[in-house]
Design a protein that fits this description.
- With about 110 residues, the chain is mainly α.
- Helix content is about 35%, strand content about 0%.
- The protein has two helices and no strands.
- The longest helix has about 35 residues.
- The radius of gyration is 41 Å and the shape is flat.
Amino acid sequence: MSKNRKQALLKDLTLAAAAMLIGLAISGFAAADLLGHKVQLAQATPPLQSTPGAETKPSAPDTTGQSQGTRPAEVAPQPARPDADAQKTGATPVLPPAPAEKTAAPIQAR
């Protein structure tokens, strides 16, 4: 190898070694900073507490022998828009009328 090539290789290796050492030093400082901090966690909601006097009260009402019943079937579902008769009597539609479509002049045959 020529002297210039050896000097260029030595310079490149020195720069590479310096870059590696700087990277390792930054990584070491970051790791030390992470390990040095005490982690603090915040609690979003307070812990559950018992109601005062809960020991003497029952936890749920007694439902033995009671029926919850069924859902009434005679209630008809309501339409989303009033019918034409309702609109004639003054009921307003839920949505405003759609805008009219824009139309262009018909294409002329050549």
